[in-house]
Write a structure and sequence with these properties.
The protein is an all-alpha fold. Helices cover 64% and strands 2% of the residues. It is built from 16 helices and three strands. Strands 1-2-3 form a three-stranded antiparallel sheet. A hairpin with a 2-residue loop joins strand 2 and strand 3 (295-296).
């Protein structure tokens, strides 16, 4: 999502928290951060990009099958593979570092809300270049969400097998190319960055660990703002804006929110897709014995994650449904994520000696 006028809010919130911050490491920092990066690179990032590449390929194949035989069954299969790929994307969204393709992947895959007028106008374009700035807000999952779910089943089939077909083909082809390139970068490339990332023990700006910390915390802010605060109207103190929601037409936003939250928690702990618990931020903070006002910082962070999971399990329907019908719970979730951001962005970065270098929260 593209956010406006958010920088001052983020800076002010961080400043107020840091003014009251009393974080202290009990032990000397002799931790080798390359142990975290090796686990993150080999067991989390690489397999997640593999899953994204595969699920986008399945979506592409299902689209081709629908094109050959447009019917309700083929449409349902395509819609389901779209949801799987969209969910897989949530696991990769924190990786906004490495090379240009990866740092801009969020813009290609998940800029929302999509401009439906721009999407519709692209249907009649012959030489379609979806990487041009013209279509910055009319591509990726949000555009597919609109085309595959807006209207009745018969209207969707007619649109998808007719005017929208070439646009969808180009859009999915672009996503397949980009996800394949991201997979290659982390799995088969000899690129200096992807190799050195997993052996880098430095923490200065531009190091692998600094990139990871910044990408991870920025992604937590996206969970807070893009997926909740903006559609809920929490930021700016105005009424809810349901048209700002992720997966607006498929009503799949709550599932995506939960998938994103779970991946953020697992990444913090260094847990891979198979449930194997590797080296993560939690191990670093435990070795440092970091305290926040006399309380164990790692336990505080884990407690927030546990509370968020419990509260999210209470929600039902889409995120917009939850915002409308379970306002007290979604407000509590926002407060807890805001607390999580502060623990990570101020206390954890202070403890591990990494500087926050991103200045805004555009994306996702």
């Amino acid at each position: 999502m593209r956010f406006k006028n958010l920088l001052s809010i983020i800076v002010t919130a961080s400043f107020l928290w840091s003014c009251n911050n009393k974080t202290k490491n009990e032990n000397i920092d002799n931790f080798d951060v390359s142990t975290i990066l090796k686990n993150i690179g080999n067991n989390i990032i690489a397999p997640q990009y593999s899953e994204l590449k595969n699920s986008v390929t399945v979506m592409k194949n299902d689209f081709n099958q629908f094109t050959l035989s447009p019917n309700a069954t083929k449409l349902t299969e395509l819609q389901n593979s779209f949801k799987t790929a969209y969910s897989d994307w949530q696991s990769c969204s924190f990786v906004n570092f490495g090379n240009t393709n990866i740092s801009t992947l969020r813009n290609v895959f998940n800029t929302y809300p999509t401009d439906t007028g721009n999407v519709n106008s692209a249907f009649t374009v012959t030489n379609l270049n979806l990487e041009s700035a013209t279509y910055a807000d009319a591509i990726g999952f949000p555009a597919l969400d609109y085309i595959l779910f807006q209207g009745t089943e018969s209207e969707i089939i007619t649109r998808l097998s007719g005017d929208a077909n070439n646009f969808v083909k180009n859009n999915i082809d672009l996503m397949a190319t980009k996800s394949s390139a991201a997979f290659d970068f982390w799995n088969t490339s000899n690129d200096d960055y992807s190799t050195s990332f997993k052996t880098d023990n430095k923490k200065a700006n531009g190091s692998g660990f600094s990139d990871f910390v910044n990408g991870y915390i920025q992604d937590v802010e996206i969970l807070k703002n893009g997926q909740l605060a903006y559609p809920a109207g929490i930021i700016g103190g105005i009424k809810a804006r349901p048209n700002q929601s992720e997966a607006l037409y498929s009503n799949y936003s709550l599932e995506l929110f939960k998938a994103h939250l779970t991946n953020l928690e697992n990444t913090y702990k260094g847990i891979d897709q198979l449930g194997t618990d590797g080296i993560g931020f939690d191990d670093y903070l435990k070795e440092l014995g970091t305290k926040r006002d006399g309380l164990d910082l790692n336990e505080l962070i884990l407690g927030v994650f546990a509370s968020l999971q419990t509260k999210c399990d209470l929600l039902s329907g889409s995120m917009n449904d939850a915002i409308k019908n379970q306002t007290s719970t979604t407000d509590e979730i926002y407060v807890k994520i805001k607390e999580l951001v502060a623990y990570l962005k101020v206390d954890m970065t202070n403890a591990v000696g990494v500087q926050i270098t991103y200045i805004d929260n555009d994306g996702d």
